[in-house]
Amino acid sequence: MLSAAKVTFIGDAKTAMLMSLNVDKFNVLANGGDAATYTAYVEDINHNIVPDATVSWRTTMNKLSSGTSKTNSSGKATVKLSGNSVGTVTVTATINNSSMSKSGVKFINVIEDTWYVKSGSSTYTSSAIKGYPDLGFVVASPTTGPTYLEWSPTGTSKVTTPVTLIDDAGQQYTVNLKGNRTSDCSTRPLNAAVGCSSSAGYKAQFTWNINDNKSIPPGHYTGLIHFYGKDWHTAWAFEYRLTMDLTIN
């Protein structure tokens, strides 16, 4: 029995149009190193994939890795956006008379998050800071712990922060935590700055254990873990405001 050979139609660049425009994340650190990647998908008028077609890009803020990029064999063209300006950005892709825009990506210099703790032990790991070869974390009021960077300490950092009982007259207690900086290379104290050759960046990590906090009675508490990612070589710093939502049964 004879079988027909598979026929592949090559898209016509003259009738190419954008079918979709996507981005890999909506929150980007405004440090010039972190980046959002935009992907445009292109087909021709007959819905054939169009390889090697030129897509033009423009942005309302910060810097694109290129003003144009070519589609690959799957009809996809990509570009990266990074920068130091803070705000919400719109990126537009264009080919021939076809354009699409993607809005909503935010460049930020403060990360706010919540750590819900409802068990005897729990670990929080922050989002990564990329683009800096040597970076660590330091705490700020009301949190206590390391306030300056060290190059290559070992072990863990002692970190404390006040928490307030929600369903009482605002009584405060001090939570004891362990703080670390993690990377693909190692886990070190929070304020370690020694570099890692990986491009995955550095993360802050906090560990809660009820055995370190036996003086805190049962209840529902909230408190702020306030810290910064800090570059070893410059004055650059990135703020984290982590709300700890703690329930002790």
UniProtKB/TrEMBL annotation:
It comes from the Bacteria. It holds the Pfam family Big_1. InterPro entries: Big_1_dom, Ig-like_fold, Invasin/intimin_cell_adhesion. Residues 18-108 form the Big-1 domain. Transmembrane segments: none annotated. Belongs to the intimin/invasin family. This is Intimin/invasin.
